Amino acid sequence: NYVLGIAYYKDVTIVILDAEGILSLEESGSIFDNQTITMAILSSHIVLINHKGELSSNLEGLIGMSLYAKLQLQNSPLKPKVLFVLRDQMDRNKKIFCEQLTQFKDNLQTSSRFLKVSIDDELEIKHENIVLLPSAFSED
Asked: Is the pTM of this model over 0.70?
């Protein structure tokens, strides 16, 4: 499922594509997930990943596969900023999630070592790109 929106700001056209269902139970298909995240990485300046819980190895694998696809094109001019919105967080101590993100990037770099490229040259993944949100329901 995709939802498309277009917004205009001054002389800039902003295209918003909401790819609902990445890593969801309803769309539990790795082909759907791989195609969707790869399309986002290849065609976006900003990729916002709205994810329940922590940074997972499944998410790491999807981003790793899209990085591989990006490098195979050899001509992808975009270096997308990857923003993580981690929702339903009881503990919103950002230090914990920054450590997770560091490990996430290290794992991506290790698994893509054979590509002979730095993750930082292809994707902008920084600690300040993490937003932690509480549950939409009461935390009591």
From this structure: yes
